[in-house]
Amino acid sequence: MSTIYESRYAISPTEFKTLDTAQLRDNFLIEKLFQEDTLILVYSHYDRYIAGGVQPGINPVTLATIPPLKADYFLERRELGIINVGGAGEVEIAGTIIPLDFKEALYIGQGNPSVVFRSVDPTKPAKFYLNSAPAHKHLPTRKVSKDEADIVILGSLETANHRIINKLLVATVIETCQLQMGMTELQPGSVWNTMPAHTHDRRMEVYYYFDLPQGQAVSHFMGPTQETRHIWVQNEQAVISPPWSIHSGAGTSNYTFIWGMAGENLDYSDMDGCAITELR
């Protein structure tokens, strides 16, 4: 196996205004998250958040530490959230094997030195989407299925934003240090996510888009509410969202996206709303 990682440094809204399209994508878009038998990680300096992906083939893939962590093992001072977006898989934690199927989530607490990923059938590989944040204490490992999620249904077909929000790794379902993850499924005929838009200056967020039909894309909107920009996102790509930025998108088809966030507040509803008519 191999490990590929990169660091993304934090920039301010003032710098953000100066970026051209290529620079915007270089700073915020994660174009490739999955490669066979490879651990891919992007270390963001917004809240020291890590987003990544693992696609085991015939061989298992180990969660390896990376130089920026200055740690003996990846979870020495971190917690980890996983959602499987591929075929059936298994996660082995210190000798205990946990099966993880499509759209199931797993939380692994700080202090676990050994995490190994496997695909049940290498011809239909698992794709483990990873989010990680710094952690201050050890918490129990727990698997969370969609049936165990805190589910909220929002929007309507008339406003093209009928969506099912599956809160998977959140305070109403499981205890974490600061990491929160969930999955929003846009219903047929709906394309808008997180609209009306909001910011939350107390935490950053990453959106991972998938379930997009071939040939379709999502236009992800970001930036301060009075000066927004957009990034065109393909299937199985992600966007880093700074605390000062909105995070919303409209697709050329319905799709699913995973949201992950970390910061100083675990209150899911803690957000600063923006009326649609106030966006610029």
Automatic annotation (TrEMBL):
Coiled coil: none annotated. It comes from the Bacteria. Its EC number is 5.3.1.17. Pathway: Glycan metabolism; pectin degradation; 2-dehydro-3-deoxy-D-gluconate from pectin: step 4/5. It is an enzyme of class 5 (isomerase). GO terms for molecular function: 4-deoxy-L-threo-5-hexosulose-uronate ketol-isomerase activity; zinc ion binding. Pfam families: KduI (PF04962). Its cofactor is Zn(2+). The gene is kduI. One of its GO terms (biological process) is D-glucuronate catabolic process. Keywords: Isomerase, Metal-binding, Zinc. It comes from Rhinopithecimicrobium faecis. The lineage of its organism: Bacteria, Pseudomonadati, Bacteroidota, Sphingobacteriia, Sphingobacteriales. Catalyzes the isomerization of 5-dehydro-4-deoxy-D-glucuronate to 3-deoxy-D-glycero-2,5-hexodiulosonate. NCBIfam families: PRK00924.1. Belongs to the KduI family. Binds 1 zinc ion per subunit. It catalyses: 5-dehydro-4-deoxy-D-glucuronate = 3-deoxy-D-glycero-2,5-hexodiulosonate. This is 4-deoxy-L-threo-5-hexosulose-uronate ketol-isomerase. Zn(2+) binds at H198, H200, E205, H247.
